[in-house]
Amino acid sequence: MESRSPFDELREEHATLLVDVRDLQSSISRMAQPDATTLGGQVSSAQDQLELLSRRFRVHFRREEEGVFPEAQRMVSEGAQGADVFGRFFAQEAEDDMGAHAALARRANEMAEMLGQMQDAGGPDEASARRLLVLVKLTATLLERHAAKEDTLIFPMIEKSLTPAQVDAVRDRLRVLGSDRDLTGGDDSGLAQLGG
Fold first, then answer.
1. Which domain holds residue 76?
2. Between the N and C ends of the chain, which has fewer C-beta atoms within 10 Å?
């Protein structure tokens, strides 16, 4: 068995997503300055940042939902030691996680729509940039809470409960699902809407 946990990969993805959303927040903050020269290029740059963040969201959410959750559910269904307590906990937390994924996806889609409107208008006005800044700050806060809960509570509990064979199954499933490193080639189709 490999010494590096597959959950470490997911924690690293959280760290990358947090950097991405903070970078986007900085860009939008500059657009919201009353004395800023709000050129269309700023909007285009923010759209590029959001597109990368959205792609990383899609990959990461899929890796958690299809790579980790099935193994935890299998452990519960097979009645492993402590599975009754873990099962009740996991059922609620998995539902909360899926809800957070859906909320983050909705916010990314809302930001994409707002940036698209700004692009069509030739650049942001101060009021629309400020509304967008509020939305990206809310997104950053939700992502920070979600990542912290998974990193410090959910993942450790799952890691502790899975057998080495189950950890290997998670690792194998994550390999099949890819990672955010697979995004470097890009996709010329523009920002696809995230699913909820």
1. 6-177
2. N
| Number of domains comprising the chain | 1
* CATH number of the domain bearing residue 39: 1.20.120.520
Those residues with Cβ within 8 angstroms of residue 17's Cβ, 6 or more apart along the chain or in another chain: 53, 56, 57, 60, 143, 147
115: helix, strand or coil:
helix
Q: What is the helix, strand, coil percentage profile of the chain, to 5?
A: 80, 0, 20
For the stretch 147-167, pLDDT in tens is 999 999 888 888 888 888 888
Instruction: For residue 181, give the DSSP letter.
Output: G
Interval 8-54: pLDDT, tens: 999 999 999 999 999 999 999 988 876 655 555 788 999 999 999 99
Helix (H) or strand (E) holding 52: helix 40-62
d(CA 137, CA 26): 10
Per-position DSSP letters for 109-160, written without gaps between them = HHHHHHHHHHHHTTS--HHHHHHHHHHHHHHHHHHHHHHHHIIIIIHHHHHH
On whether residue 37 sits in a domain, the answer given is yes
The amino acid that residue 12 corresponds to is E
